[in-house]
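2024-03-11 09:14:02 INFO receiving multi-entity request
2024-03-11 09:14:02 INFO entity count = two
2024-03-11 09:14:03 INFO echoing inputs for audit
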Amino acid sequence: MAGEEGKIDPMHQFEIQPIFDGGFEIAGQAINFTNSALWMIVTFIALWIFMLGGMKREIIPGRWQVMVESMSNFITNMLTSNVGEAGLKYVPYVFSLFMFILFANILGMLPIGVLGLHPFTVTSHIAITGILAVLSFSIVLIVGFWKHGLHFFSLFVPHGTPLPMVPFIAVIEFISFMIRPFSLGLRLFVAMTAGHVLLKVLGGFVINSTNAGAGYGALVGIPSFMLMVGISALELLVAVIQAYVFALLTSLYINDAENLH
Amino acid sequence: MPQISQLVSTFGSQFFWLAITFGLVYLLIGRSMLPKIQSTVDARNKRIADDLDAARIAHKQADEIEDQYKARQAADRDEAQKITAEAKVQATKASEKKVREADKRIATKIAKAEADIAAQTKAALSEIESVTAEATQDIVSKLTSAKVTKAKAVKAVKGALANV
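2024-03-11 09:21:47 INFO inference complete, emitting structure
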């Protein structure tokens, strides 16, 4: 955590480091087993264990099964209410997306720094959120052109637009459409990064003020620590909300592709 | 900001591992576990719906049976009332008949008794006449030693009795 002597770098937590030496190259890109890769695998395993608890398939479900089923129902309802019956075939994708982001967000919040481990939030990297956003956006494009062909472009002209306004509206709609993958990816990345930076900065306040003396510690450290507790709770909320927003926006965009306007 | 400064150097690595892990999540969880969970939910919902349907049908049946029972009860009550009314009418008729017969019997008895009384009265009167005539003959012969014929005495007694 401490970069140089007495200086705490709140950005250090986002650094990607190879855990093992070695690795290989694909198309000029070095592939290493990094802390990011480790946490992606942890996310997958945690999610897999969570889902295993729902696989008892009892008619009268236990608590765990209810949790898993309510997650599944949540995504199914989201897609049926936003897209309709046609949305059901996207449930596996949106569910995977939602759960992967949710688990990655929450696992990155784990206070295992106490044990000397370094939690890493996979979704705090623009590379990851960007790839997921582009993936969602490509699905929208592929489905849109697959189902509607060139008629998909009518998405840029909302119903009831007066004829003289059509060129302007179309340009605006096109820009807003093309911005979608960026806003989708950036939103999650920024939310995760900002919260973690804030927590780390406050953590630095606590350590540095306490090191400077008991008086400073009481004056700055304790309020900072209390603020950290509150912000941690808020971050937990943000972790859930951002996963929800990502899945919700994806399903809304899929609705555009499935049903146009 | 490592996210940007490391973007170029780690992008391939992140992409690679994301493809693997998210691919696993999509295939193992989204494609194979999720449908099973959803089918469990669907099966449960279907069973609940079926059970509710069965309960609704049973309820309807119970209502029908109750209606039938009520209808039968009402019919039975009507029949019973009819029988009672008939019996009442018959009983009234029978008792009236009996009363009439008894009245007749009593009337004949009374008539007979009255006739008897009248006959006896007449007999008694004629006896009184003859006794009185004889007594009159005796009294007249003893007082006056004149002989009065029986016919005269009877005539005189009859005339006297008529004035009584």
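2024-03-11 09:21:48 INFO post-check: The first strand of chain A starts at residue 2 and ends at 4.
2024-03-11 09:21:48 INFO post-check: Confidence is low (pLDDT under 50) at residues 1-5 of chain A.
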